[in-house]
Design a protein that fits this description.
The complex is a heterodimer of chains A (312) and B (276). Chain A is α/β, with parallel strands linked by helices and 312 residues long. Chain A is built from eleven helices and 14 strands. Chain A has two domains: 219 residues, Rossmann fold; 67 residues, Alpha-Beta Plaits, CATH 3.30.70. In chain A, strands 6-7-8-3-9-10 form a six-stranded mixed beta sheet, with helices on both faces. The two termini of chain B are 22 Å apart. Classes of the chains: A alpha/beta (312), B mainly alpha (276). Chains A and B meet through strand 6 and helix 2 of A and helix 1 and helix 7 of B.
């Protein structure tokens, strides 16, 4: 059975003066997805997320939430969504509890005191809710922001850079929290982050945008297929080796080669054969590294000439 | 939502600065008049006493209240702008506007609720002014007939005929401050920090007040259309006879300006991209 689309961007375009921030961007987030939204700084991620939430109006295109067109006259649809955009800026002079209660009051849904306690439990802030927000650490503010996004029990969360400003422990805890929101609470999550390996560990589907255009979209597993793995071989200086690749079967997999390092795009299962061939060539292999990561993949796409042309 | 907005305003320490300033200002004038009021009155009535003999307690609570209200003509709009100029721009600056607008609330409702909250604040400020200026002055200086010295006439209002005039004057002042609040709100919708709208409101009011009060022919055409000309309409309640038509006209002008300012805020805010 086809999964329901919770939020869909259709041909969104937005310019600021003469700068086109988002260019004919379309994608759909389905129920149960943890949807990674990737792109370099200035790629148009935040602008897109703001358009999804009605903070910024597109020049053309539209957003649909649960199949209904979302605009200023249908803002009630936002009750299906909880969001943190960029960072959870809160009322610093109020307590965490007051902040939570205040935003619960305008969430479009009746929220009980029990529910307020429940979300504080989920994000691990129980016991600190009466403290003023100005006394909170960045991690606590992020977690309170998620509690506010969650308080009306929406189907979907939109989290823009939720690990921004967090220390490694905070990032780890945030990752666990997001995984819990997805697996235990069944929330659909759209998440953007510049920490690509974080998204890689969380996301089930993803989109990569560059200069406002979609470069690629799909499920993370197929996009990071082992066949696409980048393997880097480091060896003792050998000026002749790059030319010897040319006459071998390995040239088909070769991405780059120089006197002390060569990179191949290949299935890791073929690595023993490559290693054996290198030894037969008298090459002293020092290290073989797999670059099987979203980061490498992302960089290979956004730095490629195809990305510049927006044709991948 | 209004309750939440008021909660936000009245949980901010800065909100109470205005009440403190009014209290301090009124008390300074009261203390000064308590210490040196006789000389002040002698000086003020110098021209009058040459022709008339005025008996009784001239320096009473009603006159002191009038002096305080005259003195706070410019300050009260500034205090209203402190909050009204902050309601949208301040939230944009803090980043909370972004979070607020990700909730299922219409932008029109956000503007109207914030305007209503600003008006509530202005009304409380006027009420506080009434308590501090009128009640305290009456307690300290007692009551009596009020001598209202104008540039070309002297109006004497009997003791029993004064209180309703003050109530009406405070009501009119509340309307004038509503107009100020709506102007601040409009400027607030254009900005991403509160300083601009607060300074902008003050700048506009000061400049327009100059136009309103300077007796130059070049300003006479536009003067009647400026809201600042009509903001001092409360003074009419201390004339004899009371110029009801002129006061009503001023009230209508202020109401029209308020509607225009709020309407423009709604239109602009509904079109605005939230990038803060």
């Amino acid at each position: 059975m086809a999964r329901e689309i919770i939020i869909e961007a259709k041909n969104l375009t937005k310019s600021f003066a003469r700068f086109k921030a988002v260019d004919d961007l379309s994608f759909a987030v389905h129920t149960g997805d943890v949807y990674g939204f990737l792109g370099q700084n200035g790629a148009g991620k935040s602008t897109t997320m703001r358009m999804l939430l009605g903070l910024i109006y597109p020049d053309s295109g539209q957003v649909q939430i649960k199949g209904t067109r979302f605009n200023n006259n249908s803002r009630h649809l936002l009750k299906h969504v909880g969001a943190i955009i960029e960072r959870p800026d809160l009322y610093r002079y109020l307590s965490g509890w007051d902040n939570l209660k205040m935003f619960a009051g305008i969430s479009g849904v009746e929220v009980t005191t029990g529910r307020l306690h429940e979300v504080l439990d989920i994000v691990g802030l129980r016991g600190r809710e009466q403290d003023k927000v100005k006394a909170y650490s960045q991690g606590m503010k992020q977690r309170l922001g998620i509690a506010i996004a969650l308080v009306h029990n929406p189907d979907m969360l939109i989290l823009d850079e939720p690990t921004n400003g967090l220390d490694p422990q905070g990032i780890y805890e945030m990752r666990l929290l997001i995984q819990r929101l997805s697996k235990d609470l069944g929330k659909t999550i759209l998440i953007s982050s510049h920490l690509l390996h974080e998204v890689e560990q969380i996301a089930t589907s993803m989109i990569i945008i560059h200069r406002g255009k979609k470069i690629i979209e799909g499920d993370v597993k197929s996009l990071l297929s082992p066949d696409e793995t980048l393997m880097e071989v480091v060896y003792v200086q050998d000026e002749q080796l790059p030319s010897r690749f040319t006459g071998s079967k390995w040239v088909d997999y070769l991405v780059s080669a120089n006197a002390d390092k060569a990179t191949f795009k290949m299935n890791p299962a073929g690595m023993p054969d490559l290693n054996k061939w290198l030894v037969e060539q008298g090459v002293q292999v020092m290290e073989i590294k797999s670059s099987h990561s979203l980061e490498t993949y992302f960089l290979s796409l956004t730095n490629s000439p195809y990305a510049e042309a927006g044709t991948i | 939502m209004l309750k939440l907005e008021l909660y936000k305003i009245f949980r901010r320490p800065r909100t109470y600065i205005s009440f403190g300033i009014i209290t301090a200002f009124a008390m300074v004038i009261q203390l000064a008049l308590l210490a040196d009021g006789k000389n002040f009155i002698s000086f003020a009535l110098m021209g009058v006493t040459e022709q008339f003999e005025i008996q009784g307690k001239i320096l009473n609570g009603y006159l002191v209240t009038y002096i305080i209200l005259q003195s706070l003509l410019v300050q009260i709009p500034l205090l209203v702008a402190l909050v009204a100029g902050d309601v949208l721009a301040g939230e944009a600056g803090m980043g909370t506007l972004r979070l607020l607008l990700t909730k299922p609330v219409s932008r029109t409702k956000v503007v109207l609720v914030k305007f209503t909250a600003s008006v509530c604040y202005a009304l409380l400020l006027i009420t506080w002014l009434a308590v501090i200026a009128l009640v305290m002055s009456v307690i300290v200086f007692g009551t009596g007939d009020m001598v209202n010295l104008k540039s070309d006439t002297v109006v004497i209002i009997l003791k029993d005929d004064i209180m309703w005039r003050y109530m009406a004057a405070f009501g009119f002042a509340a309307l004038a401050m509503t107009t100020v609040a709506s102007l601040s709100l409009l400027l607030s919708a254009f900005a991403d920090n509160a300083i601009g709208p607060i300074m902008g409101t003050m700048g506009i009011i000061v400049v327009l007040m100059i136009f309103s009060t300077l007796d130059l022919p070049v300003f006479s055409v536009i003067r009647q259309y400026l809201f600042t000309t009509h903001m001092i309409g409360w003074k009419g309640f201390f004339d004899d006879p009371v110029p009801y038509r002129a006061i009503a006209n001023s009230a209508v002008v202020l109401a029209v300006y308020t509607i225009l300012f709020v309407g423009a805020t709604v239109v602009w805010f509904n079109k605005k991209d939230i990038q803060s």
